[in-house]
Amino acid sequence: MNQSAASPPPRTPESDFADSNAAPAPVKPSAAATTDIGCLRKAHTTWATEVAEDMRRGKRLNQRLAAARLSVAIAGVVTLIAAFSEPSWGFAAAGLILVFASLVALHSFALKRQNQRERWSLYLMHRKAQAELEWEGMPEHSELALAAGAEVASDLDITGEHSLLRRLNACISVDGEQRLAEWLLTKGIDAEVVRRRRSLLQTWLAHPETLRQWSELYQPERRPSPAALAAWAKRPEAATASFVEKVGALAPFILPLIWIAVWWAGPKVSWGATLTVAAFAFASGLVTASRSRVSAILSDADLAARDIRTLRNALAVIQTLQATANAKGNAQLDNSAPSAGQLAKQLASLETWLSFAELRSQPLVHLPLVLLTAYDTLLARRVRAQRRHLATSLEPNLETLAELDAASALAWYTGMERAAVWPTISAAPCLSAAGLAHPLLPAATRIANDVPHLVPGSVLWITGSNMAGKSTLLRAVGLNWSLALAGAPVCATQFEVGPSQVRTSMRVEDSLARGESHFAAELRRVAWLTDDLSALPPVLFEIDELFRGTNAQARHSACAAVLAHLLRAGAFGLFATHDTSIAQHPSMQGFNLIAVHFTDILEDGAMHFDYRLRNGVVTSSNALALVASLGIPIPELQAPSSQT
To answer: Tens of pLDDT along 337-347?
Structure first.
């Protein structure tokens, strides 16, 4: 979509949703330019500059702190040695030790801060790569488990290595990415759901600093999953404890009494030393009795600790977003997370207890605590109790967390994409577009085309030369349909879509593993295309070269039959084919076929493509010319001019 013109006047979110009582009006091509609704590009540049400068300052600070630590350490060793001959140096040595400990703590904080800056810088680099379609610089794509829509996802490049999801994915959590994929593959959505998704997206756009706080939680090495954390919180306890483990669980109550008794009686009896040794032996056995169960609880908690910290910070951002959005009268966020505050407090409490578990990595401190107080057992009891409370509070917030995360990714796309406009969501099933382009092609090479107004019972019949753009147009329509129903802008100058469910037949392959030929695979896909056509919303089909696995005559009749069956049932969509005579088949009489085509252009003996959609049926084919270009003689090819 390599065009430029004045931007159309701004519209409110509600203005893009058609009146449910009004008939859908066709979207006509216009000279309006692609609307520059990007509001994050300038902020992105500012943030990238700021973080680069912060990283330079942070690097210098870390170098100075490291040098100071080394200098103080050397001075401390020297003064400590001197203290052996001159005790007065002991005070200086003690002071240097305190200074060294302070520098270690400060350096540790500075390193953590630098790590945060590096993650934020990487996040901004990923967003820039997505905006400019530099696939090598984008985050790695994820293999998602799709509950439905796998055929559509593959055919339209919604998921995969070079996919719409990979270009959009700016989610900080695994759950957000999964929700974003579900939005892009939604089946039978209504205008109210689209309205809510768009409102969430626009709320992020209206609060870019809050969006920045959310995005700074990005952890590329391991993105958290609130759903997995909820599963951990709800995990049932292990099997019934044995008698020994039950006794071990009483260690926090028994050990203090034993040590009080040893402290009181030890000095008063001659066998006090023996009593102390026996107490240590009993304490060791008591602690060991519950060691396996305690270790299992604390090890699981260690794995969840980072997710808990990220989730707590995310809830704080949500509360900020709620407060600022509601203050501006955005009721869309009212009650979006009714228990977010309570959950944040529970997470903070659990995080505090988990921080105590860090002492387990300090043996000199940890071992005495364990023997004196059964520290690990006491800690495991508290973590288990906190986990039970977390399970009841986390569940109601999972939906809000996933939706806001998915909306934040769409907000980044909206703010960075230069060629996008808000689509119109009609109350009646339809599809039409002006200046429509493929969102996975660079802006400099996109070619925009118009799609006529389609309603149930009509089909855009696309013919044309090989490699001229038929499949690309189908995918452009499908991807923009997904964006529109996800609540995002589309790559077009105008776009209108109504309730519909997309079904596709484009990348159909045989399968040796299933013992399925290409034709059998096509039959299976057609069975899905035509299944339950009476269900609402109506099917919006996108079919590319149906029945390639059979002969030309059978393909001609079968394609016409399938297409007529779909149209008769109220479906509508796009049908790309090389068979220019399908429209003349008796089965197709009486239907609304809108014929368009792509073609090639022969200039100075060289073949070019302009990827422009033209009215009517194509009158030429380039297949023989393309084969001849490989140096293979084609007897039927009389002259180059016969192939255009």
So the answer is: 446 777 888 88
